[in-house]
User: Which sequence fits this backbone?
């Protein structure tokens, strides 16, 4: 089963931007007035290409066989058994063969999110006879304990470790990572560059 993890905030904001761009492109086409409209289209094209590459494309994907890291310009497919170490700070870094490292673009943990997680992991002291907070079920309590002091990035890092250990126990081969260019991002960036050239050339 495939699981995809990404920055929800960046993903939502990117789609809001695309809706904004769609409206403006329609308006520029309807009210086309030559070079100023072309320049505006070129600017929107460049910004949209950057938004796609940085906010929409990046994702961390779990498949049955491998960890797939989709970064802005490259895609890395790393078999689970090849994962040697996982560290989580601002981003998740996965180390594999010959001291190589895969830095995942998402999910990331901001300083604010980490501070919030630390506060969540600190037990609160309750005083008095009456408790205003509702009593949690066993499942809710277990979930709180599992996430105590952890950000989403920490949790995903733990899942990567567990899957890599499980793959080694099953005897999966530690094959080298496969890295390929992100042709979708490159195509979008080339199209944006073409718009810039057209806007610069046409008088």
Assistant:
């Amino acid at each position: 089963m495939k699981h995809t993890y990404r920055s929800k905030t960046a993903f939502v904001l990117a789609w809001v931007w695309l809706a904004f761009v769609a409206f403006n492109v329609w308006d520029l086409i309807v009210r086309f007035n030559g070079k100023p409209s072309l320049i505006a289209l070129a600017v929107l094209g460049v910004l949209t290409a950057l938004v796609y590459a940085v906010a929409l494309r990046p994702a961390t994907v779990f498949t049955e066989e491998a960890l797939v890291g989709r970064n802005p310009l490259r895609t890395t497919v790393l078999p689970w058994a090849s994962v040697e170490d996982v560290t989580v700070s601002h981003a998740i870094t996965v180390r594999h063969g010959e001291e190589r490292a895969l830095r995942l673009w998402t999910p990331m943990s901001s300083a604010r999110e980490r501070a919030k997680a630390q506060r969540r992991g600190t037990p609160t002291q309750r005083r008095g006879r009456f408790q205003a907070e509702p009593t949690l079920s066993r499942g809710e309590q277990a979930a709180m304990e599992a996430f105590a002091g952890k950000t989403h990035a920490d949790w995903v890092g733990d899942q990567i470790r567990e899957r890599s250990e499980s793959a080694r126990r099953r005897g999966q081969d530690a094959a080298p990572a496969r890295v390929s260019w992100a042709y979708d991002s490159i195509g979008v960036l080339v199209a944006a560059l073409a718009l810039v050239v057209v806007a610069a050339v046409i008088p």
Notes: The two ends are 54 Å apart (CA to CA).
